[in-house]
């Protein structure tokens, strides 16, 4: 019997289930912050996982997206062979008003 070519659907955590420390921890990593910032400037569902310019391999990128999903920041879905992403801006802002704006508009300390 051939192995299934379907990937398991990613698990998502709703922002209502996330503590502020979990959210801050997810946003504290420079790679994850880059992913969130790029998603914030993109149309929903327009960015596949491989479209981000970050200095990590596929396995590490998958881990970073898993952390962002677990923090309620990102939602993902499969479209054919690609996994596409959206920033859960509305839901996250309802849970933590102003936090995402603050993080997105704070300059990097080490540009």
From TrEMBL:
Q: Which SUPFAM superfamilies match?
A: Winged helix' DNA-binding domain
Q: Which Gene3D superfamilies match?
A: Winged helix-like DNA-binding domain superfamily/Winged helix DNA-binding domain (1.10.10.10)
GO molecular function, one example? Answer: DNA-binding transcription factor activity
Describe the location of the HTH arsR-type domain by residue ranges. Answer: 12-107
Q: Which InterPro entries match?
A: ArsR-like_HTH (IPR011991), HTH_ArsR_DNA-bd_dom (IPR001845), WH-like_DNA-bd_sf (IPR036388), WH_DNA-bd_sf (IPR036390)
Name of this chain's protein:
Transcriptional regulator
Q: What is the lineage of its organism?
A: Bacteria, Bacillati, Actinomycetota, Actinomycetes, Kitasatosporales
